[in-house]
């Protein structure tokens, strides 16, 4: 595109003279001032709390030794990587591009975040979590100007295997079993266990953030997107209401503060979908929370309807009930989750074929609506997750919601049709 990252700023292809960091120069191409980034030997990402972990005999994670400090690179990312225009995905706070390391030719994913305190916190927490095999790994971080904006460029491993539920949906005639659901939940649990051990709550555990490393059958499932992750200690409970509605814990919908237990609620919702193919708190309003759906979440009102649940083990249902407790204090911890017989498979988890693949396939259009509405909701709900303001459903101009509003208005005369 005739552009390159040089010396921490984006300029046309040309030789540039060295200038003292922090000084101003004129851009011959644009005729405007460009501020060189001041050199910083220490970054917000450098802190003594970065840790690698080991599992104790009690099944809990403990601090072992500090992680090497992340060094943010100041040179142009294009010195080391070939940056393409291929968009791999859209995260909460930035787009993800396909890039290739020049030395090896290996493919990676590049996430571009406008540099600010929130972006640095996201990278900080994601970096600390990177040693976990079930969390997408950060390779490098650069501080450059991109499109005239000061940005953080995060190089991550590329997850070519796609999303969790897309993989299940595409299985065709091959049955998805309860045993496989158990294996998947254990993998997700390992990521959450790692995070909670270093006092990080992810706060956005949802299917779209669970990706496979490759298309191989034995590919690793990994958690990504730390845009809402927050450090939590006994002195810092999580009081910021940011969430994706289908996977939101009930206390987030009310005035109560919330903590790591909201991740456990999300595990319960994901486990529910894995075992049947649809979420427990379904609404005809897509992902915009209707009053009825909000009430059901707050009251913990859900069922295990037949035929999808008729053959699912009671142990699995009981585990879901424990995860979806409306009172956070009653919800199981991640350690209890990992020690549950259905997860650690001290019991023989049945190889029962589930309806999940069929339901996901049949409801493919609905599932796409869910994802589209989620994208729209994220754009309005998650502008600033320190001072979040959720747009009222009545004020939404989302096309999907508008379409459903019209459909609902046409059925108001028929109470049975209007019920949801």
Automatic annotation (TrEMBL):
One of its GO terms (molecular function) is protein serine/threonine kinase activity. Residues 1-27 are annotated as: Disordered. Its EC number is 2.7.11.1. It is an enzyme of class 2 (transferase). SMART domains: S_TKc. ATP binds at residue 111. Residues 82-343 form the Protein kinase domain. Pfam families: Pkinase (PF00069). InterPro entries: Kinase-like_dom_sf, MAPKAPK_C, Prot_kinase_dom, Protein_kinase_ATP_BS, Ser/Thr_kinase_AS. It catalyses: L-seryl-[protein] + ATP = O-phospho-L-seryl-[protein] + ADP + H(+); L-threonyl-[protein] + ATP = O-phospho-L-threonyl-[protein] + ADP + H(+). Keywords: ATP-binding, Kinase, Nucleotide-binding, Phosphoprotein, Serine/threonine-protein kinase, Transferase. Belongs to the protein kinase superfamily. CAMK Ser/Thr protein kinase family. This is non-specific serine/threonine protein kinase. It comes from Echeneis naucrates.
């Amino acid at each position: 595109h005739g552009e390159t990252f040089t010396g921490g700023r984006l300029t046309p292809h040309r030789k540039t003279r060295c200038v003292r960091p922090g000084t101003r120069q004129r851009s011959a191409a644009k005729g405007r001032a460009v501020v060189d980034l001041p050199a910083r030997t220490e970054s917000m990402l450098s802190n003594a709390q970065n840790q690698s972990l080991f599992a104790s005999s009690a099944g809990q994670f403990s601090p072992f030794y500090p992680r090497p400090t992340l060094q943010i690179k100041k040179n142009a990312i294009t010195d080391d990587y070939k940056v393409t225009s291929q968009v791999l995905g859209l995260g909460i706070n930035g787009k993800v591009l396909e890039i290739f390391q020049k030395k090896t030719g290996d493919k990676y994913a590049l996430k571009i975040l406008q540099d600010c305190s929130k972006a640095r916190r996201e990278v900080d927490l994601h970096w600390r979590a990177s040693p976990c095999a079930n969390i997408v790994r950060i390779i490098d971080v650069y501080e450059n100007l991109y499109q005239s904006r000061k940005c953080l460029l995060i190089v991550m491993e590329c997850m070519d295997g796609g999303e969790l539920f897309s993989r299940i949906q595409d299985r065709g005639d091959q049955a998805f079993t309860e045993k496989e659901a158990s294996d998947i939940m254990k993998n997700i649990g390992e990521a959450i266990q790692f995070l909670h051990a270093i006092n990080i709550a992810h706060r956005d555990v949802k299917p779209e953030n669970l990706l496979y490393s490759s298309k191989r059958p034995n590919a690793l499932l990994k958690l990504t997107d730390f845009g809402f992750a927050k450090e939590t200690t006994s002195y810092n409970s999580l009081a910021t209401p940011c969430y994706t509605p289908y996977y939101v814990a009930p206390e987030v919908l009310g005035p109560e503060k919330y903590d790591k237990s909201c991740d456990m609620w999300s595990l319960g919702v994901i486990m529910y979908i894995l075992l049947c193919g649809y979420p427990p708190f379904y609404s005809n309003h897509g992902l915009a929370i209707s009053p009825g759906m909000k009430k059901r979440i707050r009251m913990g009102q859900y069922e295990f309807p037949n035929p999808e649940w008729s053959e699912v083990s009671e142990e699995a249902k009981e585990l879901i009930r424990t995860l979806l407790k409306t009172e956070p204090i009653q919800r199981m911890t991640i350690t209890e989750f990992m020690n549950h017989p259905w997860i650690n498979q001290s019991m023989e988890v049945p190889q029962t074929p589930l309806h999940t693949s069929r339901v996901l396939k049949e409801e493919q259009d609905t599932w796409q609506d869910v994802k589209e509405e989620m994208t729209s909701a994220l754009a309005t709900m998650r502008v600033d997750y320190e001072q979040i303001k959720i747009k009222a459903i009545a004020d939404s101009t989302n096309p999907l919601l508008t379409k459903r509003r019209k459909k609902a208005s046409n059925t108001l005369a028929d109470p049975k049709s209007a019920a949801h």
